[in-house]
Amino acid sequence: MGSVPADTERRSRLLSLKLRALVRDHFADATDVAVADDLEAVPFPLGAALLSPQTAWLLVDDDAAGALGQSLAWVLSRQPSITTVHLLVEMCSGVLARRAQLLNRNISVNVWHINERDLLQALPEPPLPSVLASTAHLEFVATIREAGADPLVEHGVVVGEVRGLEICRVVDDAHTGAVRLEVGTGAHDREAFALVHGDLPTKEALANVVRAVSTHRADGALPHPLNSFGAERLLRAKAIEEPSLVKCTSVVAAEPPVVRKNVKDAVPCVAIGEEPDGTRHVFVFVAHVDLDVVPFALDAWHRLDPTAHVTVVIREKDRVASIERLAGLGVVPVNVVTLKDG
After folding, report:
1. Core-most of 166, 204, 260, 321, by most CB within 10 Å?
2. Tens digits of per-residue pLDDT, 166-205?
3. Which domain-ending residue is among 200, 225, 250?
4. DSSP collapsed to 3 states, 116-164
5. What is the DSSP string of 96-109?
6. Domain assignment of residue 268, given as a range
7. Would 128 be classed as within a structural domain?
């Protein structure tokens, strides 16, 4: 039991030493760095940090995909006088550099890729290209709709949802290449469902699941795993069903700027909305305190429609001051609105 804190403390010290060495080797000419050893080392939840009065050097340990917003929120709360942030990462540097370009000049963010003891200025990755679903996969859209689910295509993948919860997916058989519709939430659930209900026709099996899941995704339903997963997509489903909730006449689902790796992960989701006067919005829905939602939303807006407004939709209980502060750092204003949960 006692070994975990010791391991964590040891890891933190090693990261701090690594960061100090990198700063000493690569930022010695910076105007506010006299001696790297004199910089203040402070605890940083994502890795290690060194601070001068105007500059922060942040080393992010492990997966840095959602580190931009969290890092900026930490800096702004810790030392508001900082105007330059150097973000040092080993993973996801291209995505972070792309998102850093979408921030205004109130705070300068430089992303660096760590290659052992070298630092390379990260090059912004281009937005993901649009991928069309194959004709064979799109042929299942009618089956999904007839069973009562909502067909959705994201990054070339055809799925069926019930109020935002994925319950089926069109896949290619890994061995035969045959296209089939699998029922279930997530790969393991689809495999288990096939083992138990393999004798049911797909449409009948899917309709049964739609009925069962709809009960748990209904407003006011008692807490259940089927309404705890994909809470942000349930918010989006409500806006699609009733666009007036976000002051629009229409809201349609749209692709996120990154591919969702696991359907059970809490990842912001995206929609395009239009007001009565034709004003368009890129909406990003989130259902927890996500400090990276503003960079994510700017990324989605830039990829989908840079002429639109960008709006983050959250639950009232998740609206925190850090998100409000980050919303003011975009190259365009990021609106933050609330939507009733439940």
Report:
1. 166
2. 999 999 988 888 999 988 887 667 776 666 666 566 788 8
3. 225
4. CCEEEECCCCCCCCCCCCCHHHHCCHHHHHHCCCEEEEECCEEEEEECC
5. HHHHHTTB-TTSEE
6. 230-338
7. no
